[in-house]
Fold:
Amino acid sequence: MRLSREFAVLTSDQVLNSIARVSAQADVEAQGAVLRALVNANILQTLPRSSDLQLNAYVLEFVRGLTREHELGLAAVLQARVIAIREATEVLNEGMAEADMDRVRSAANKLAELFRQISLQLDQDRHALLELAENAKSADSSMPISQRYRRVLEAYDQYVEPMNQMMDTGPQGTFYHYLEDAEHALDLGLERLSVQGVLYSHRLQLRQVAHQAKELRRFGRLVAQQCADTLLPLREELRQHNVLSSAISLLLGQVRKRGLRRALSRYTDNTALPVWRNERGFKLQLGDEVRMVMAAARAYQPQAVVFPQDEPSEAMQLLEHVEEAAIRAHLARSLPVEDLLDWLNSHYADLQDATLLRLFHDLQHEPDWQFEPAAHPVKTRLQTIRVLHHPHRVSTPE
Structure:
């Protein structure tokens, strides 16, 4: 397996050397027998027009699944599968609208398969990214850092960035929107099938696929966060290292040309060295014991502060008691009235302005009377305010 990661095609000598390392006691004839057995079992396949060998793709994929040594997939494949979710959801909605159970079940199976493939790819890509980061960190420290982190940067630009855009919860993202649409369609279809009383197996199928959609939303969010947490620090480290390296190289060049004293004696903005800094500052605060010692040393006497008493609120004044039944009876006897607010102000001028306005609005909802607003507004002066309103004519319906 390790040899297949370095060479896509193996020669017979390379395979025999690998067998010899595993079975050191076997002679040349036994090693050849093992090689023939692998070829006969179709674990190793002979390439056409050549005697070279290649590991069976199914075997290779199976072993990589066991050892979690996957290759990083393509973001375009993931995007195509996400778009296929939208198409399958549309088919599901059409099947529900036409009461076609065959289309509904076919669309549900399609969604289930897409959810399975996307989950599998996300899991494989997550392990592939973790392996890339581990290889970059464990590489030879004497190697230039740009060379060590080259695959990390490529993975971030070609996979993580497109995946973050796709998983954006805003209008630009598609992953969560399509999943939410599919989940909503599945829940709605399950509710309709329950009302219609279809077979339990059909309803169970939709319920299981809906659960897959919910789980995929959670898993996708988790994988995106883990990928960003793994690669972003390495990318930031390389970016800072590049800036620092360029600044140091410039400064060393000035020292070489002008000398140390002249190069470092004059400060300019361009000579500022970029450094790492901790974004989180530290705060110190005196404890209460220290405050008490300082207060005793200075003979501090705290001054008593008298807080103002709560003043009675004016809320009680707003709760003015009004005999609304009497006012309604009075108004009924006075109909028709040309201006309701002016009538209230004329006969109940002792009431507060807020009470008059509340009565003005409440009386307009009286179902037994007819209210007709005037076309032109007028001003009516109350006790403290002046109101611009359309006079409401009140009358009894004919």
Q: What stands out?
A: The first helix runs from residue 2 to 6. The radius of gyration is 40 Å. The CA atoms of residues 288 and 294 lie 10 Å apart. The beta strands are 44-46, 53-55, 370-373, 378-381, 386-389, 392-395.
